[in-house]
Write a structure and sequence with these properties.
By secondary structure, this protein is of the alpha/beta class. It has one domain. About 35% of the residues lie in helices and about 10% in strands. It contains five helices and three strands; from the N terminus they run E-H-E-H-H-H-E-H. A three-stranded parallel β-sheet has the order 2-1-3, with no helix packed on it. Strand 1, helix 1 and strand 2 form a beta-alpha-beta unit. It is globular and about 40 Å long. About 15% of the residues have low confidence.
């Protein structure tokens, strides 16, 4: 995976970029050998973007039904998408985040390998539609 040379900020919803050390998630792609070091550039935990425990449980139940895990899932449950949008995205004030990002190029990080299997795709889609942001999905090598 090639990271954009002008990437300046990493935005994560959890505690640390080290969550994906097995190479499965986007965060591990950034912190395990890519050409960009999150420890010397801008990095922020955006806990307000985190799904609630109830929403995570809903998705885990769907994963179990399909025999998938969060690193092997291929899509989010429709009910999860609907509720995450209503309970998180529709209620969040993006203005402070947008001011912090400014004109910088930023990356949304999460543990899931595929963007369509993670809430970050919902955040990215909201930012693209509401703010006109261009979205480029970075995936770890196979």
């Amino acid at each position: 995976m090639s990271l954009p040379p002008d990437l300046r900020l990493a935005l994560d919803r959890a505690l640390s970029v080290s969550r994906g050390s097995d190479g499965g998630g986007a965060s591990s792609s950034v912190d395990s050998g890519a050409s960009w070091d999150v420890y010397t550039h801008g990095y922020s935990h955006l806990k307000e973007l985190a799904p609630t425990t109830e929403l995570r449980a809903l998705q885990y139940a769907e994963d179990a039904k399909l025999g998938e895990g969060k690193r092997s899932r291929t899509a989010l449950a429709p009910e999860y998408v609907e509720r995450y949008t209503e309970e998180i995205l529709d209620r969040i004030d993006f203005e402070p985040i947008l001011r912090w990002v400014g004109a910088s190029r930023a990356a949304l990080l999460c543990v899931e390998r595929d963007p369509e299997a993670c809430h970050r795709s919902l955040v990215a889609a909201r930012l693209a539609s509401a703010q006109g942001f261009a979205v480029e999905d970075l995936r770890p090598p196979e």
